[in-house]
Specification:
Blueprint: H1 3-14, E1 18-20, H2 25-47, H3 51-72, E2 75-77, H4 80-92, H5 99-118, H6 123-145
Antiparallel strand pairs: 1-2
Helix pairs in contact: 1-4, 2-3, 2-6, 3-4, 3-5, 3-6, 4-5, 5-6
């Protein structure tokens, strides 16, 4: 981890947004499995034309997959935003994962919030986030399994 990223991570710890933790391989792989199951549920919801729920489930699929990586790295987040921030520092800025994976998390977060809190959702958005999450989980799984 580079100096700038280390400083950001230390700042997140000092602000109480993340903390150092130790997770077993079983724990972070189980967390990734939650994401895989959420993605499968999102696909079923989409087929049933329940686009709001499909959007929410797709977001949680990427959330849990990213969380598995954060666990593997020895951290635990205190919020969705903190998860997004540490993910960017540990995996995107280091180029272990492409920016499109971060965008998937960020876009999914916005779509989930709009669906959950404003009842705003669309078939096209649900379909696009499911596709994006499917691709992102393939990339994340390589790191979870390594």
């Amino acid at each position: 981890m580079g100096g700038e990223s280390l400083k950001v991570v230390e700042d997140l710890i000092l602000r109480g947004l993340i903390k150092k933790c130790s997770f077993s391989e079983d724990m972070y792989k189980k967390e990734f499995g939650v994401g895989v199951r959420d993605l499968e549920s999102a696909k079923v919801s989409f087929e049933e034309k329940n686009y709001k729920w499909a959007t929410v489930q797709a977001y949680y699929a990427i959330f849990h997959a990213v969380r598995a990586l954060i666990y593997k790295s020895g951290y635990r987040e205190k919020s969705h935003i903190a998860l997004k921030d540490i993910f960017k520092e540990l995996y995107i800025k280091t180029e272990e994962l492409p920016m499109v994976t971060y965008d998937c998390l960020k876009d999914g977060m916005h779509l989930r919030e709009a669906a959950d809190y404003k009842n705003l959702y669309a078939k096209e958005d649900a379909e696009n986030i499911i596709i994006s999450v499917s691709e992102s989980l393939k990339e994340i799984q390589k790191l979870v399994d390594s």
